[in-house]
Amino acid sequence: MEAWLKFQGLWRIVSGSQKRPERKSPSPSKDNTTAESATASATAAAQAELLEAKTLHQPSG
């Protein structure tokens, strides 16, 4: 869930490290959001690959 929230640029708000955006500035800092989004995307992709590999290599029995 944390990876998805980071990917959406919402993790800082949900975790409490950033207050909700003011009406003047509706989006979090672009640099932080981009870095968190990239990290979250990579994390989600790695988790999906690991799950797929685990599923494919389960012994049938």
SSE diagram, text form:
Blueprint: H1 2-7, H2 11-15, H3 30-56
What do these coordinates show?
Residues 15-44 are annotated as: Disordered. With 61 residues, this protein is mostly helical. It has one domain (2-56). The protein contains three helices and no strands. The longest helix has 27 residues, at 30-56. 5% of the residues are buried.
Principal-axis shape equals elongated
Q: Based on helices, strands and strand pairing, what is the structural class? A: mainly alpha
Q: What proportion strand? A: under 5%
Helix and strand pattern: HHH
Q: Which residues form runs of ≥5 with pLDDT under 50?
A: none
If you compute it from the alpha carbons, what radius of gyration comes out, rounded to the nearest whole angstrom?
16 Å
Helix content bin: 55-70%
What's the gist of this structure?
The protein is mainly α. It contains three helices and no strands.
Throw out a few tags for this protein:
mainly alpha; 62% helix; 0% strand; elongated
